[in-house]
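Tutorial handout. Part one gives the primary structure; part two gives the three-dimensional structure as tokens.
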Amino acid sequence: MSPLSPASPARAGRPRRAAGAFAKLARQERPGAGELNLLAGRGSRLESLTGLRWWAALLVFGEHLAALRLGSRVGSDDTGPADTVLHWFFGTGTIGVSCFFILSGFVLAWTYCPETDTVGRFWRRRFAKIYPVYFVSTVLAFVMFAGMGQTPSGTNVVLHLTLLQSWTPDQSLYFGLNPVTWSLSCEAFFYAILPLLFIALRRLPASALYATVAAAVAGAFVLPYTLGELVDLPYPAEEIISTGPVGGPFPYWFTYVLPAFRALEFAAGVCAALLVRRGQWRGPGVPFALLICLAGWLVNQELPPRLQHQAGTFLPFVLLIAALATADVRGTWSPLRGRVMRFLGEISYCLYVFQLLLLAVVSGALRPALAATGVLPDEEAALPSWLVGPVGLGCLALCVLVAWAAYRWIEVPLMRRLRPRSAAPAVAEGAEGSPDAVSADRTPA
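Part two.
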């Protein structure tokens, strides 16, 4: 008899042990559904989701690389051919952040079990996972700004250290130190609400979970237009990134940065995980889901700018994440499960956090160095098209090397030191607005 069978005496006699707790969870989550081995599913490594994190981080890296406009003259409105190609591939690379947010909801809901864990322990594990690397990157950003004679304000520093920067609509604050870490402010909010959100969504039938996903996707399409038409706030007057194409400062902040709005993606990920856990997910397999994501990426490039941060690929990413998780549980084909993909996925959080700081250093030193050696006629000249590709790959290699070092000597040891000492769940949580690991307890998560 299966240890999860309704008649199992182990479940009735030892409700606090793992099998009993999972069985209780199964009764609550999927009344009347066919049996699904939750213990096997939750105890296995969702290695394909670890690999997916690398591709999401690569999208964000490519978007930042394209923004440097290495193939165009500094200050010129003319775009070089190499920059045109990079923009076509990565101009909407911010969808990688959307993928991370959905992944975060999915993986945390997949591993979270309130019957065997406390909220305090869950929050401590999440702190141990993301905060040490985040803190180091924030200090480095402060030192870089101070070294340029632009010491950040006390308000800026406090908001960043407390992960509250994304709750203010001022770009000089939410992009004020290490700009990419605005998403970690969102992640902190997700961690805060997960225990209540999980309990609320877990009680819904499958039809309501599907409807919640549909409503979240619809909100990603409707709200950017609604806000653009109904709200016209000039604040803040000074912008780091132009918000005109997306409707202005307030719609940009509300639909791209505000944690409460980005919780739509997180909640959709939670719903998808609950459906997969129950065995009630009815979505495409991995091959078709990959094709849908490719189509979503192409469609997303043709959408109005205010929708390009998430709308076109929101549903495709949900379908892909659920398909990959199902494939891992069943042991069926997945292209993201190999050793290299797992390694790149495990270091992707550090890659995400440090990439923009590294690119800023490279972009500041590259043109002067090439001009000094005679490759460029002056320090503001465009790089030759043939050189942009090798420089981009070199930047990626540098970022990967630094990410590996940070993963090896900052993330892993400090996570092990700070996380709770007693027994932890069989599968550690991962996230990714900040790209977290989806891995077994012996590895960082």
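Part three, for discussion. Residues 1-43, 423-445 have pLDDT under 50 and may be disordered. The CA atoms of residues 292 and 316 lie 6 Å apart.
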